[in-house]
Amino acid sequence: MKTDEFDSIIFDCDGVLIDVTNSYDVTINKTISYVFKEITDITIDTPLTNEILLKFKSTGGFNDEIDIAYSGILCFIAAKKLNKDPTELILDVLNNADDSGIAYVENFLNKIDVAVSSIKSRLGYPSADKNDLIHSTFDQLFFGPELYSKIYQKKSKFSEKGFIENDNVIVNSELLEALKKKFNDKIAIVTGRGFNAISSSLKEILNQFNVENSVFLEDESRDLAKPNPQSLIRAMKGLDSKNCLYVGDSMEDIILTQKASELGFQATFCGIYGSSKLPEMKKNMFAKKNASLVLESINSLPKALNLV
What we know:
The chain is of the alpha/beta class.
């Protein structure tokens, strides 16, 4: 791989620019616990282990953390109906999962005679207005009362601070200045986050990216979610990029670059593994997929790109 061939660099956010292990990952479990208690009056403390969370994200169909929460809730309700250990059931679901996300989970449970349709109608997820129990619970827990009210013009039912405040920003201005010089300011973001969520955490650092040609998928229609390559293609077109290095941390990101390249938009994947709670497991996942470039952190980019 010749690093001087790249004419732009585009970043995923979560797990790359920001360590989300104490924010998004925690919110997934808190949402499952809250919604499951609302429905069954049963308390579960830590529904999904770090290994299971990574297994979800390794399928290529769960770029949206709320989809993981929904699937977890479905599995816990199904396990209760089947009188089965929920962790065992979730592992059964994930062991042969494809990249179709929640559709795969629903089909799997239907095949083992779980009445998913009745559970789905009660949960109402996903909903176009994001007002279903799972979506609203997740967003209220993640954003906290003030930011949730700003985004949705609604009052949160929770008074505690949002887990977004636990975001740990990895990227820094010095790194971005070096990359902007290397790529002639062709530096952008394609992320599952919405603009409000990313700007709340990155603050003024966000202005160092080409925001106009970045894509914040939470603000877009659901059918554009990763691994649909149209978001990356849009960013590349806006940057007038012919050969992009896309820096991500998930299976969706790998598939995203592959699909973009198949459509004639040359994109190379760079995998980041160090912000995972199971870094070696993620590193091995990238190795098995023959990722062109695998780094522990984005802070290793200058050396990898021969900038130092």
